[in-house]
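Extended Data, panel c. Modelled sequence:
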Amino acid sequence: MKKLFSSILITLGLITMLNASNYPVPSSDFVLIKGGSFTMGSPESEDWRSNDKTQHRVTLASFYMSKFEVTQKEWREITGKNPSNFTGDKLPVESITWLEAIEFCNALSKRDGRTPVYTITDGGNTVTWNRSADGYRLPTEAEWEYAARAGSTTPFYSRRVPGAEDVNFYGHYPYQIEQNYFNDEVLETRPGVYRGKTLDVGSFKANPNGLYDIYGNVGEWCFDYYGDYHSVPSTSSGNAGTSGVTNPTGASEGTRRVYRGGGWNDFGKNLRSAYRAALPQNNSAYNVGLRLVCNADDSVKGTIATREEANPGAKKSAGNGKTLIIFYSWSGNTRGVAREIASQTGFDSIELELVKPYSTDYNTVLDQAQSDQHKQARPAIKTKIDSKKWKEYDTIILGYPNWWASIPMPIATLLESYDFSGKTIMPFCSHGGGRFGQSLTAISKLAPKATLTAGLSVHYSGGSSLSKDVEKWLKKCGVK
């Protein structure tokens, strides 16, 4: 009966969509994404899938989506400034927060005589979406994936795995390179060039929906709070199970906002149509921008109010203002950064040791690291922190090497072994060219009730600029 009731409501929703009045296309830079149903998420058999991508049926109304990511020229014309790490009129804007993205949408709507979509109150902690407004907005997660897939059910919209000639990403690491690093001739798509920067929007072939750079270049903010699909409500009825949902908008409360598509420094596994990245809505990143959407008709009505989730752990775990540096290091690069931070601050410092250490051989540890990440292993940590001592620290300066575009699995063990609720995490990493990769997303997901500050990425050991880089970062994070 429950499935029948849900199916009836979805059918009624489809009828409403069919009888809707159409809105005109905003400009020639937008394409119509016709409404319909699709399976969102990825099958358990998809390589590098994690358990936050449960498959479920979704039905969507039609919408318009911009062919291109918002450029720096477009952003500057509206805001009068350009926060981007890379600069160029035709480059995608990046280094913008989620809140800045929705403020841009409202400002652009006003300029173009459209009804602004969002109402921002309580210092940005509450954002209300007028679903019938014709103004510019961010896509929902479901809209983004539906548009990216373009009818496909494979990891990417194309049958062939995209390479560096198709997408701007960390081309040395195409999909499934991790487990085939020493035998890459078996891969359909071989390693290619890594450009290490954003490119002009529209530099590659569009997907079947006419969307350029839907994978790579910059990740694209979505409206939704990050959460499990099974807990996501629908604007119609039903849950995110097999019975499906209609025009879902994500959870009403949360601490992390979703972005999709991967960026210029992401590995192939993180470009997949179903891959979900997330950051706090007040955080920005040099590989995250936005793509605009607006309603194609008036079939979806009502308002959606979303709120930053209150964190009761903030008061419960508040210590005496102490800060702890805790890090995992393999080659010594991360250890060197940690020592520099400790030298400048005098903070307590702990290096994580494993019950079963990784090999000291470089090639061996590469394979061990990818294997642990692939199966989401949790290596046992030999280092223990007394629970009473742990409660004394309000801020954790967390360090690690960027392994395979994410955190080493010992850091995952740490994040799941101690209560980070109400604490502030200041992340730093050593890397060989990919900066943070998707490690900040991994931390965001594993410690959702912690505050995440801007991070410090250090190329290998940091060289002669390490001291100044650390000093600048500490100052940015308010550490004196």
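Residues 221 and 259 are 4 Å apart (CA to CA). This feature is highlighted in the accompanying rendering.
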